[in-house]
Amino acid sequence: MREFAQLYQRLDETTKTNDKVLAMRDYFSQASGSDAAYALYFLLGNKLKPSLPTRIIRRAARLGAEVPEWLFEETYQWVGDLAETAAAMVKGRSHGGQESLPDTLPDTLPDTLPDTLPETLSETIAERLLPLLRSASGTQRSTRKSSLSSDRRLEIDEALASTLVELWSRYDLLERFVFNKLLTGNLRVGVSAKLVTKALSQWCGVPSEELSHRMMGEWEPSETFFKQLVAPEYSGSSPAKPYPFCLAHPLPQGYSEENSVVDFLAEWKWDGIRAQLVRRAGRTYLWSRGEELLEGRFPEIELAAEGLPDGLVLDGEVLGYRDGVPLAFTLLQRRIQRRKPGVKLLGEVPVVFIAFDVLEHEGKDLRQEAYEQRRRLLESLDWGVACVGQALRISEVFSFSDWGSLFQKRDTAREHGSEGLMLKHRQGRYDVGRVTGTWWKSKVTPYTVDAVLVYAQRGHGRRAGMFSDYTFALWEEDRLVPFAKAYSGLSDQEIVRVDRWIKENTQKKFGPVHEVLAHLVMELAFENLQESSRHKSGIAVRFPRIVRWREDKQARDADRLEDIRRMLKGKGESG
Amino acid sequence: MFRDLLECTPRGLYCPAGDFYVDPWAHVDHAILTHAHADHARSGSKRYLSAKSSESLLRVRLGQSIDLQTVAYGESLRIKDARVSLHPAGHILGSSQVRIEVAGRVALITGDYKLQSDLTCDAWEPVRCDLMVSESTFGLPVFRWPETRLVVQEMIGWWEENQRQGRTSLLLAYSVGKAQRVLAEIFRVCGVEVASKVAVHGAMLGPNRAYVSAGVALPELPSAASLGGQHDWSQSLVIGPPSSQSTPWMDRFSDPSIAMASGWMAIRGTRRRRNVERGFVLSDHVDWPDLLTAIGQCRPERVWVTHGFSEVVSRYLTESGIAAEVLQTRFAGEESEPTVVEKSEEAS
Ligand SMILES: [Zn+2]
Questions:
Q1: Which of B116, B140, B152, B293 would you mutate first to test chain A, the one with the most A CBs within 10 A?
Q2: Contact (CB<8Å) A94/B153
Q3: Alpha carbon of A149 to those of A133, A162, B68, B258: distances in Å?
């Protein structure tokens, strides 16, 4: 626990990427496999489930600090962070800890310093955190079933709170803070998956790309998993794993000046769910880009895929599709939300998987081959008795001799139910995590980006009282840089949902402005953009508005500031 | 109830029976100063009274020519109908609490104070009183200071790590009080031999000399500016005032690691707003538990709360059975704005 807390501190103290990588590498090199597994799990933004209801943390803090409720709330308002407020208020072990200070005087330590205090991160989680979380969620569930009287619930809350106070007393301030962050499921350390992977790779010698593949999908933070992950030869057994997704970046507008269009193949950019279809060990696994297994959600695709050969991984898009026409994303959303769709919904919103790339064939990883080769293979695949043409399709590709005709084609995208073109370099490998110019997306104007909601404020007029004024940010390195405010575009129902989410996920308040967890991604459109020294992002956008809420995307999938800067470069030129 | 003893006027706290002010913010005839910080000691008044050990600092701050009378701690003076004595406040060198007795009733004005140990000034003493005027700069329960010894050890560890990496250790600390306290602590642990690797900002030369002339043991330290362009800063510890951050003065150092020593560093948000790599929680004010301890030991029947989280502290005291109210000062409204407090405490 101590080492992990110190890692948190080191990451928190520096803004330098190299220092962060070094801090993580140092941690991995000294941690046991089971500790490293948990550390990795948290660094990647995963949380323990369920988190502890904040009312219990509040109660414990009041109990431990012996302060009345109003004083706790007043203090919390000022500090702006629940985990920190609680950690700082209560008494605990002396700051700095025992180990680092051999000359610590006995009277500075609580006289009940236990000999059984779990020292390591994994023990702390297994022996302290999880039991606490489990009993709390047990209460939660029974309360919902209303089999529990409110007196009884209060009693249990009280017991949980005193356990927490007892635990806090054994940790120093930093440990308490990190411990609370784990309890609330709110440990944001400000490092990207890319950086974490880099640090891990530097320590264990397995290349980053290989590591991110091994980490795809769901995994348990166990010693076994971690040892397999960092072993030179992968012995992991999950046949389900997809590959890290290759991402397209917005086409920089001056790009056409300096590059030849004949090097590219183009296809429609669909407005669906990016997914990989994995066929291994006689089974089908459909993965979303958010590394979520879409099992059962799209039975027609899974059924059609049964005819596909083993050892095959396809990259493509799940799309609502009826009578030869793609359906609007909002219709597809009805399918996303339904884990087991009924017959009626299946009829109303049928879906297809449009394959546009093949990443593995006969068990062989093809990602290093040229796109052109992979494409040729895709088109010559033996689809068996698969219902090609129904739930499985292959995307259509176009080639152009000049950029002008490409842009002309792009501008007809709407007629085809598409939002623009994807451009893929014929010689491009299936790359991950870099802007290499192998995949570009070129959307029909206006400009659009996927941005992360970072601040919210209550609106006025019709939406008074609801959080309806949003500030959005884009990534720069590992930071989110605010770049646009948008007020309109969501439906009233969506605003209600977003409003509720904001209330539950406010991290900090600056007067009326709520800083929220970086989690919600929305697609923004705007008319124009220009350089601006007045904006932190260096860019001012005109008439930004929300096109839609991208519930299929995670914060880390949002666009980067450099993407928008690239749009700026060469603005006004054709395309 | 305390009419002859103390009242709050537009010029500051005033004792009618003795016809003098305590830390007035306007020019007056007779001012008693609790300590030399800029928001307590202002120039322009005719006559001043302070603790003997405050003299050297006050003359550095307000000029050599001020009309200043000094008294030893505990020495009792009659000023008109009031009996006045000064008692150590433990805040910085020469800081006092002012005890005023009129017709058997006692008021105590704490000025800024702390209960933690400090090598550079006399320790705070409890004074029994009927009315206590207490500061509340850190009057929220999240402020609980770690032991000074541990913070200093952390600070030295930071300096050592920077030396290994060839980075200058630049520590931001208020020029009057905090800087000298930090230096004294470091030399106590590391020995004065390390003084050759320590430099200060020019603004600290005067206060440092004032401390030495008042009998505080500090080695002679050069200003960073006096060390010239060729100086090797890779092993250095440099103390600068918070206001020196991001000024050209900083350009001379090699890849400095910037840290700050302040009570505000206890909160992550204020630390981040300050934009420093490290925050050391070291304050010259009382934290929450010490504030309550001090009030408990002075046993006032009424508390006037000022400078800081006055509303919160006075409500808490009232609910705990101690009559308390907020003293409206010129600095009202600074509760939620630590930077204001920082500035007001900073040497000008
Ligand atoms: Zn002061």
A1: B140
A2: no
A3: 20, 20, 71, 55
State the pLDDT confidence band at B236, using cuts at 50, 70 and 90. Answer: very high
With 70 as the cut, is the pLDDT of residue A139 above it? no
ipTM of the complex: 0.90
What is the reported pLDDT for A535?
77
Confidence (pLDDT) at B339? 33
The neighbour count for residue A133, using CB atoms within 10 Å, is: 21
B144–A91 C-beta distance less than 8 A: yes
Integer Cα distance of A427 and A237 in angstroms: 32
Closest of A368, A25, A44 to residue A230, by C-alpha: A25
Give yes or no for a contact between A202 and A255, defined as CB atoms under 8 angstroms apart: no
When pLDDT is cut at 50, 70 and 90, the band that residue B336 belongs to is: very low
Domains, chain A, ranges and CATH? 48-184 (no CATH), 246-443 (3.30.470.30), 447-574 (2.40.50.140)
Pairing of strands B20-22, B30-32: parallel
Distance, in Å, from the CA atom of B22 to the CA atom of B5, rounded to the nearest integer, reads 12
Q: Closest Cα partner for B310 from B324, B322, B300? A: B324
Q: What pLDDT is stored for residue B118 in this prediction? A: 95
pLDDT of residue B98: 98
The contacts of residue B125 (CB under 8 Å, 6+ apart) are B73, B87, B88, B97
Q: Which residue has the tokens 């909160």?
A: B267
Integer CA distances (angstroms), A238 to A157, A234, A358, in order: 40, 11, 20
The pLDDT-based confidence of B343 (bands split at 50, 70, 90) is very low
Taking contacts as CB-CB distances below 8 angstroms, the residues of chain B near A80 are 269
Query: Among A358-362, B51-55, B334-338, which stretch is predicted with the lowest mean pLDDT?
Result: B334-338
Rounded to two decimals, the pTM is 0.69
* B163-180: burial string, b at 16+ Cβ within 10 Å, e else: beeebbbbbbbbbbbbbb
- What separation, in Å, do the N-terminal and C-terminal C-alpha atoms of chain A show? 54
What does the pLDDT average to over A9-15?
A: 86
Mean pLDDT across chain A:
82
Concatenated DSSP letters of A385-401 = T--BTTTEEE---B--S
Question: Which structure tokens are listed for B340?
Answer: 């204001």
Residues whose CB falls within 8 Å of the CB of residue A63, separated by 6 or more in sequence, listed in order:
A161, A162, A165
Contacts of B147 in chain A (CB under 8 A): 94-95, 108
Q: What is the mean pLDDT of chain B?
A: 90
Reported confidence tier of residue B96, pLDDT bands at 50, 70, 90 = very high
Cβ neighbours of residue A426 under 8 Å, at least 6 residues apart?
Answer: A263, A264, A265, A370, A371, A372
List the structure tokens of B74.
């505990």
Residue A318's identity, in one-letter code, is V
* Eight-state DSSP code of residue A532: -
Report pLDDT digits (tens) over A341-378.
888 888 889 999 999 999 999 989 999 999 999 999 99
Q: Which two tokens stand for residue B125?
A: 């003493």
Burial of A409 from C-beta contacts in 10 A (0-12 / 13-18 / 19+)? middle
Which of A81, A89, A506 best tests the B interface by mutation, with the highest count of B CBs <10 A? Answer: A89
Q: pLDDT, tens digit, for every residue of A536-565?
A: 788 888 768 788 899 888 898 899 988 888
| Per-residue 3-state assignment (H helix, E strand, C coil) for A232-301 | CCCCCCCCCCCCCCCCCEECCCCHHHHCCHHHEEEEEECCCEEEEEEEECCEEEEEECCCCECCCCCHHH
A333 CA from centroid of ligand 1 (Å): 61
Q: What does the alpha-carbon distance between residue B286 and residue A13 come to, in Å, rounded to a whole number?
A: 26
Of B144, B269, B281, the CB nearest to A79: B269
* DSSP state, residue B104: T
Task: Say if residue A429 is exposed, middle or buried (CB neighbours under 10 Å; 0-12, 13-18, 19+).
Answer: middle
